[in-house]
């Protein structure tokens, strides 16, 4: 007699129920919603909620639900019309310190969301959005560090009154040249004491005594780590300011950053903001020398030649008053006198002090605002990637200092209110510690994402139907039991994907389709064995027993090898491919359970407790 | 219902020299195609920019070409994708523009034709990323093979491990050769499919090997070749049925899964067909050629304990 012990039947029942429960959220509709996050020191609380309610009320927009979670507020609406109307109202009511973002959220009953059940997490290729892989230019980061050291060494040598001939930087090294060996040795000692992370080397060349300082490997690593972390922080600030729900910003490897922005619509704009290195510098204009001479190649030492946006040449002092790094806050608006777009800037303590001193000493003289932007591109030259760097420096405004100022002031001269807004956003988010370059982009429009979901669903259903019909014809009652297991398998895959919140991608759906085809393999193996046993003249009950038993080790061996392939795929794969590996692996595991334990439980129920003359297999 | 009648006993292994010739010819064609024609690598591997745009109405390619020409995208490759309303454009890198903004400019040019144009997809892969991917893909295949070699070697015997790896290499080469011969785009999903073919091909092979091992232990008489032939016959209907159901779902995927998944489904269809054939012929005849005997497969103490237990 074929009977499962009670605990095994209960196990199957429990798995089936839990699977059904956790797969359930995927059946519910998604509500158009809005996620509101607070910027800087703003808070989200009950007061914010009532402000929003009051702002929505006059327009007749009713929120379906409002929840505050993790310092974010989620508001659900009945229609996307309401959602868009509310977007404008809420943005106007809450102002700059809050960022509303459009999103979707499932309309789950409370008891279900209370269990922590969620629908599957769809990848960008299904929900639409932008995926970019950003490469941080570590060589530049290290060069910048070397540059900082060279200026620190200059200051140190001046303080210690050690005369040098020249300090120069070559890639990641700083070279200091001296008249004689004695000075050089003193300096080397001073530098060594002050900067322990530098490797020093003394060189004697013809008539020249040199110290070569280079960054130690540990220091280089530290610089790179810092550059990466700082860039991630800056990118996160920028993305948050843009108002995108559920952004993902993550380190990948030692020099790359992945940014995923689901549902984002305007890739051109986003890439501009992400990659932008725009910042400002404030310099005094050089009025003592002639601009014409400089244009003809005689630039005075102490000054540099710049151009205004209309191409007009300007001569500016080399010394910078304040850089973008000293800006702690910025917002955009209109200049009250001229009505031009303006950026309102606040400086940190050091910057404010410098600005006050400089403007005090130079009232009536012109000061210039320089707009700086770095661009990096990789090009293939003779089959090898070569990085091309371009620095854009434009004078956006030049005006006489009317009165001394310090911490807060405004800058005009920008082309449009939009440019002012973007610049304010960039200044606020902080500068990138090292230049970045977008090395990969995958943007999926929302229409394609939805098409992929629909087509994927359709192929799963058609594939499932075909296999089920075949199995029912071929193995009759046993085939129907296998069909039941196959459906259960699908439910379990969906449930596990939902529980793990693993990303479902289009190749992931393909993996599910493939699993449907391969999942019946275990049952085919078992049923063929049962047929063989019957053909060998064994009794029906003994045949069932022997069929399951003999097929078991074959099934395990066959599935483990496929699992090995899935694991390799997972460890090598990028986003979409990982999705395929995940569904394939989950499918293999669940199908072993449903096809072996699941079908056996049902077969036992049908045949186990009675005398059987013939099996419908 | 039966695909193969009970008691059928084809002399499958007797025709293995014929199969050897057949496999040899297929492999030669595949290798020649890979070497001479090469694979039509997608931008995932070569690097480049690809833009897919959906128009509200069918659009002539010449109109799109003119619009792109005007904006300096003279060397863009333009084609319909799936429907006459969808247009796929491949862009070459340009000196006067950052690669990351190429797609934006091309899309605005294409939007000039019809403001209702919808940006369906942008893929931009920098050259360094493409190179890394090619390298990683090759390594992944190697790791998968090594992992399988070890597992099969431990579970069975080294000759079986070698036999299954020969079958895998056979299947993978022919699948890739198919893509080279017909110049079908070889992109990242296709590579994933090829890796899945490794898993599938093996799955089939293992089932046959399992039966061979079992029969060697059970049948005390008979030549190795005869036992292997019986084993392949006994597993034949299972092999055909499982391949059949897998092909059913793959055709569903190929026909209804959308353009993006086409190459993926195609690679698996080719892989499953070849894999079915190779699990019958290639894997088993390799084992015969390496001279496996009963003594090699007698149960080792260690194995007796774990394997034939009840589920």
Top CATH class of the largest domain in chain B = Mainly Alpha
Kindly report the name of the CATH homologous superfamily of the largest domain in chain A.
Answer: Multidrug efflux transporter AcrB transmembrane domain
Return the structural class of chain B.
alpha+beta
Low-confidence stretches of chain B: 302-311
Notes on the protein architecture:
The complex is a heterodimer of chains A (617) and B (311). Chain A has 617 residues and is an alpha+beta fold. Chain A folds into 4 domains: 6-24 and 445-608, Multidrug efflux transporter AcrB transmembrane domain (Multidrug efflux transporter AcrB transmembrane fold, Up-down Bundle), CATH 1.20.1640; 31-107, ACT domain (Alpha-Beta Plaits, 2-Layer Sandwich), CATH 3.30.70; 140-217, 2-Layer Sandwich (Hypothetical Protein, Haloacid Dehalogenase-like Hydrolase, Chain: A, domain 2); 278-431, Gyrase A, domain 2 (2-Layer Sandwich). In chain A, 50% of the residues lie in helices and 27% in strands. In chain A, the strands form 6 sheets. A 5-stranded antiparallel sheet of chain A has the order 14-15-13-18-19. Chain A has a 4-stranded antiparallel sheet with strand order 2-3-1-4. In chain A, helix 2 packs across helix 3 and helix 13 crosses helix 14. The longest helix of chain A is centred in the last third of the chain and has 55 residues, at 446-500. The two termini of chain A are 18 Å apart. Chain B has 2 domains: 13-41 and 129-298, Multidrug efflux transporter AcrB transmembrane fold (Up-down Bundle); 48-122, 2-Layer Sandwich (Alpha-Beta Plaits), CATH 3.30.70.3400. Chain B has 12 helices and 6 strands. Chain B has a 4-stranded antiparallel sheet. A two-stranded parallel ribbon of chain B has the order 1-6. In chain B, helix 5 (127-155) packs parallel to helix 7, helix 6 (158-181) crosses helix 10 (282-289) and helix 7 packs antiparallel against helix 8 (224-256). Mean pLDDT of chain B is 86; it is low at 302-311. At the A-B interface, helix 9, strand 18, strand 21, helix 13 and helix 14 of A face helix 4, strand 5, helix 5, helix 7 and helix 8 of B. Strand 21 of chain A pairs antiparallel with strand 5 (118-125) of chain B, so a sheet runs across the interface.
């Amino acid at each position: 007699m074929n009977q499962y012990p009670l605990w095994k039947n209960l196990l199957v029942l429990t798995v089936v129920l839990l699977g059904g429960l956790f797969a359930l959220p995927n059946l519910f509709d998604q509500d158009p919603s809005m996620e509101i996050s607070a910027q800087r020191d703003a808070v989200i609380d009950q007061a914010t909620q009532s402000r929003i309610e009051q702002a929505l009320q006059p327009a007749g927009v009713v929120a379906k639900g409002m929840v505050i979670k993790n310092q974010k507020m989620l508001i659900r609406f009945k229609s996307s019309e309401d959602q868009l109307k509310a977007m404008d109202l809420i943005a106007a009511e809450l102002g700059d310190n809050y960022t509303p973002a459009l999103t979707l959220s499932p309309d789950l009953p409370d008891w279900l969301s209370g269990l922590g059940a969620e629908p599957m997490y769809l990848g960008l290729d299904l929900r639409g959005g932008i995926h970019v892989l950003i490469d941080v230019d570590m060589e530049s980061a290290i060069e910048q560090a070397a540059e900082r050291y060279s200026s620190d060494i200059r200051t140190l040598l001046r303080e210690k009154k050690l005369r040098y001939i020249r300090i120069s930087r070559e890639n990641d090294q700083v070279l200091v040249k001296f008249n004689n060996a004695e000075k050089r040795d003193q300096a080397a000692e001073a530098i060594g004491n002050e900067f322990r992370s530098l490797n020093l080397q003394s060189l004697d060349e013809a008539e020249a005594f040199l110290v070569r300082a280079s960054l130690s490997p540990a220091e280089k690593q530290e610089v790179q780590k810092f550059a990466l972390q700082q860039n991630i922080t800056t990118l996160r600030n920028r993305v948050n300011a843009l108002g995108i729900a559920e952004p993902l910003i993550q380190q990948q490897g030692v020099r790359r950053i992945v940014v995923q922005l689901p549902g984002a619509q305007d890739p051109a704009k986003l890439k501009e903001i992400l990659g932008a290195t725009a910042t400002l510098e404030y310099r005094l204009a050089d009025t003592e020398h002639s601009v014409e001479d400089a244009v003809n190649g005689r630039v005075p030492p102490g000054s540099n030649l710049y151009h205004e946006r209309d191409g007009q040449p300007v001569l500016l002092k080399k010394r910078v008053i304040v850089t973008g790094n000293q800006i702690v806050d910025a917002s955009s608006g209109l200049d009250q006198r001229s009505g031009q777009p303006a950026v309102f800037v606040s400086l940190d303590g050091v910057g404010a002090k410098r600005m006050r001193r400089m403007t005090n000493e130079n009232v009536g003289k012109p000061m210039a605002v320089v707009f700086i932007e770095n661009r990096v591109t990789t090009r293939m030259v003779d089959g090898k990637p070569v990085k091309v760097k371009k620095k854009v420096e434009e004078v956006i405004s030049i005006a006489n200092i009317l009165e001394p100022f310090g911490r807060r002031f405004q800058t005009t001269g920008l082309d449009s209110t939009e440019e002012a807004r973007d610049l304010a956003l960039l200044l606020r988010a902080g500068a990138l510690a090292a230049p970045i370059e977008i090395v990969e982009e995958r943007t999926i429009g929302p229409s394609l994402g939805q098409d992929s979901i629909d087509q994927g669903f359709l192929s799963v259903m058609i594939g499932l139907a075909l296999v089920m019909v075949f199995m029912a014809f071929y193995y009759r009652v046993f085939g129907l039991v296998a069909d039941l297991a196959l459906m259960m398998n699908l439910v379990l895959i969906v449930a596990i994907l939902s529980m793990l919140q693993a990303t479902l991608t289009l190749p992931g759906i393909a993996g599910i389709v493939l699993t449907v085809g391969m999942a019946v393999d275990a049952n085919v193996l078992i049923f063929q064995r049962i047929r063989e046993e019957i053909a060998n003249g064994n009794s029906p009950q003994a045949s069932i027993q022997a069929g399951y038993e003999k097929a078991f080790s074959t099934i395990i061996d066959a599935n483990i090898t496929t699992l090995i392939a899935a694991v390799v795929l997972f460890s090598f794969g990028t986003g979409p491919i990982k999705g395929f590996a995940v569904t394939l692996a989950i499918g293999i595991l669940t199908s072993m359970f449903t096809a072996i334990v699941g079908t056996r439980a049902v077969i036992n129920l049908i045949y186990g407790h009675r005398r059987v003359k013939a099996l419908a297999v | 219902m039966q695909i193969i009648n009970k008691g059928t006993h084809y002399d499958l292994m007797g025709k293995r020299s014929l199969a050897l010739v057949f496999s040899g010819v297929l492999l030669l064609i595949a290798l020649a195609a890979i070497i001479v024609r090469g694979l039509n690598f997608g931008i995932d591997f070569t690097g480049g920019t690809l833009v897919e745009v959906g128009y509200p109405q069918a659009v002539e390619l010449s109109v799109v070409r003119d619009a792109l020409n005007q904006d300096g995208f003279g060397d863009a490759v333009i084609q319909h994708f799936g429907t006459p309303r969808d247009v796929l454009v491949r862009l070459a890198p340009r000196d006067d523009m950052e690669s990351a903004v190429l797609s934006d400019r091309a899309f605005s040019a294409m939007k000039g034709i019809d403001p209702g144009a919808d940006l369906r997809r942008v893929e931009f892969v920098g050259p360094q990323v493409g190179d890394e991917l090619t390298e990683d893909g090759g390594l992944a295949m190697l790791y998968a093979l090594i992992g399988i070699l070890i597992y099969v070697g431990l579970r069975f015997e080294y000759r079986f491990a070698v036999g299954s790896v020969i079958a895998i290499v056979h299947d993978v080469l022919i699948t890739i050769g198919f893509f080279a011969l017909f110049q079908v785009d070889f992109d990242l999903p296709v590579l994933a499919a090829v890796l899945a073919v490794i898993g599938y091909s093996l799955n089939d092979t293992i089932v046959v090997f399992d039966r061979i091992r079992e029969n060697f232990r059970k049948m005390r008489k008979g030549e190795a070749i005869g036992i292997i032939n019986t084993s392949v016959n006994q597993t034949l209907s299972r092999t055909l049925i499982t391949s059949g159901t897998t092909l059913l779902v793959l055709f569903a995927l190929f026909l209804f899964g959308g353009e993006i998944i086409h190459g993926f489904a195609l690679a698996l269809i080719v892989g499953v067909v070849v894999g079915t054939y190779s699990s019958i012929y290639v894997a088993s005849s390799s084992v015969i050629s390496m001279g496996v005997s009963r003594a090699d497969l007698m149960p080792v103490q260690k194995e007796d304990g774990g394997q034939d237990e009840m589920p």
